Structure formats: C-alpha cells, structure tokens
C-alpha cells in the first residue's frame, strides 16, 4: 500500500507511522526524520534545510521533493510506503502524483489525523526526541521513558527539539493551516481521505487507522 499520513505538528504522525508501518510491512518515510539525520551527519542537504526548520518554515520544494523521491525509489519501498510529513503543500502533492504516475503507481489512502490545537500544543511541549534517531519519540507525561532522558530503544540521550519551542510551534501551526491543510481538499477530490480522530490511547488510534484502510 502507498499511504500518506497528514495532520498538524504533534498530532502523533510519527508515533502512528511506526505502528502502521510495522503492521503493514512497509517502510515509514518521514521527511522530518530524513532532514534531521542529514543535519546530524553534516551533509549539504542538512545545511540547506536547517535554518528553515529552526524557524518552523517549510524547507524549499527544490530540496524536499528530490530527497523524498530518492527515498521512495529505494528497494525497500518498491511494494509500498507510509509517507509521514510529505507532501506538505500543494506543489509537493502534485509532484508526488507525477512521480507515482510516471512509475504507473498511485496512492491508496490518505489518513488525516485530527487533534484539537490545545492537545497538539501539549503533545509538542512534552515531546522528547532521541539524539541518535529522531524516530524514537517519548513524552514527559504521556509516554515517559523508563529512565529520565534516556531512550528506551537505544540508550541515546533524549532532548527537546529546538523547533518544539513555544515560539516556533506557533509558526509551525500557522504554516500547517496555510500550506498543508489545502492538500486535504486536494486528496478529498480524489476520494482518498479518511479522517482519523487521534485523541486517546495510541493503540486505539492505530486501530481506527487500520480499520480505515480495510
Ligand atoms: P512535525 O511532525 O512535528 O511537524 P516534522 O519532523 O515532520 O515535524 O518536520 C520538522 C520540520 O522539517 C518542519 O517544520 C519543516 O521545516 C521540515 N519539513 C519536514 N517535512 C517537510 C516537507 N515535506 N516540506 C518542507 N519542509 C519539511
Ligand atoms: P508528529 O509526528 O505528528 O509531530 P509525534 O508522533 O512525534 O507527532 O507525537 C507528538 C508527541 O505526542 C510525542 O511526544 C508523542 O509521544 C505524543 N503522542 C503521540 N500520540 C499520542 C497519543 N495518542 N496520546 C498522547 N500522546 C501522544
Ligand atoms: P506495550 O509494551 O504494552 O505494547 P507500549 O509500551 O507500546 O505498550 O505502550 C504502553 C502505553 O503507552 C499504551 O497505552 C500506549 O498506547 C502508550 N504509548 C506508547 N507509545 C506512546 C507514545 N509515543 N506517546 C504516547 N503514548 C504512547
């Protein structure tokens, strides 16, 4: 299956993607995680993305689309993938359609994680991310690590992402409403969207998402 996960920052996309990708045996492709890995490795791509991420702005399409395309063309993605955080604006959505069409493929579903803004702000404020792998995510109260500030998965140090600061979060939410939300209508016109209420237990949200894919 080829699936797109959308929702505001902090909605739980990364958390759900980890479970869904495992259940469906497809790779979880997060453009945010790819950018952060490039930044920690000091690549040119990471250098060109960093200032945009720190400000809570979108990284330019000229950088983002090529990176996403390269990842989707890896052998492990040949039979499907779960996209988390891409596309994030209409031109990325159109580019994705073109990339898939050129390969004779199409999307199967778009899952829209719906969470009210107050809850999203709480989730982001308490989020702690592993320095070794930004797909390893915890929350100080909702999903605390067994040992404070230590990743349960790999023993890495947990930290608060710079762009999870209150000032940047406000801008990220504004960017989400202005640039990302329009892709939901774009995909609704293609009949692809399932809206998933994303409040409550992680496992319950996963179940709702799996039911929507049946
Ligand atoms: P969250 O899920 O909390 O919104 P992500 O890890 O998905 O955070 O993204 C972090 C940052 O990486 C974004 O604020 C943006 O700067 C950049 N980014 C991630 N994906 C994209 C994308 N598809 N287009 C442009 N920028 C992106
Ligand atoms: P996104 O990728 O959409 O930005 P994350 O998956 O990183 O969101 O989740 C944001 C924060 O909220 C993390 O700290 C995560 O542990 C927490 N979280 C995710 N899902 C839930 C949930 N259902 N209930 C409570 N907290 C959650
Ligand atoms: P188990 O080990 O029983 O499979 P987990 O350790 O995955 O369970 O999760 C224990 C509880 O924490 C569950 O209620 C789950 O929904 C919740 N949970 C797991 N991961 C997160 C997360 N990233 N954010 C918020 N809650 C989480």
Automatic annotation (TrEMBL):
ATP binds at residues 10-15, 127, 137-138, 200. It is found in: Cytoplasm. Pathway: Purine metabolism; AMP biosynthesis via salvage pathway; AMP from ADP: step 1/1. Its main location: cytoplasm. Residues 30-59 are annotated as: NMP. Residues 1-214 form the Guanylate kinase-like domain. Consists of three domains, a large central CORE domain and two small peripheral domains, NMPbind and LID, which undergo movements during catalysis. The LID domain closes over the site of phosphoryl transfer upon ATP binding. Assembling and dissambling the active center during each catalytic cycle provides an effective means to prevent ATP hydrolysis. Monomer. PANTHER family: NUCLEOTIDE KINASE. HAMAP family: Adenylate_kinase_Adk (MF_00235). This is Adenylate kinase. It comes from Streptomyces cirratus.
């Amino acid at each position: 299956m080829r699936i797109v996960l959308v929702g505001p920052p902090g909605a739980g996309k990364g958390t759900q993607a980890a479970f869904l990708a495992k259940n469906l045996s497809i790779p979880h492709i997060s453009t945010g995680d790819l950018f952060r890995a490039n930044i920690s490795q000091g690549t040119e791509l990471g250098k060109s993305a960093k200032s945009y991420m720190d400000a809570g702005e979108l990284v330019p399409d000229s950088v983002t689309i090529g990176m996403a395309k390269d990842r989707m063309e890896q052998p492990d993605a040949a039979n499907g993938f779960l996209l988390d955080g891409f596309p994030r604006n209409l031109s990325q959505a159109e580019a994705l359609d073109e990339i898939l069409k050129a390969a004779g493929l199409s999307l199967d579903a778009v899952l829209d994680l719906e969470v009210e803004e107050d809850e999203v702000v709480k989730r982001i404020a308490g989020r702690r991310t592993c320095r070794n792998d930004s797909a390893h995510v915890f929350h100080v109260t909702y999903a605390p690590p067994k040992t404070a500030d230590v990743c349960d998965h790999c023993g890495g140090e947990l930290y608060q992402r710079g762009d999870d600061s209150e000032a940047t979060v406000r801008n990220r939410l504004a960017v989400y409403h202005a640039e990302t939300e329009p892709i939901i209508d774009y995909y609704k016109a293609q009949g692809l969207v399932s809206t998933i209420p994303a409040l409550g237990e992680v496992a319950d949200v996963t179940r709702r998402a799996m039911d929507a894919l049946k």
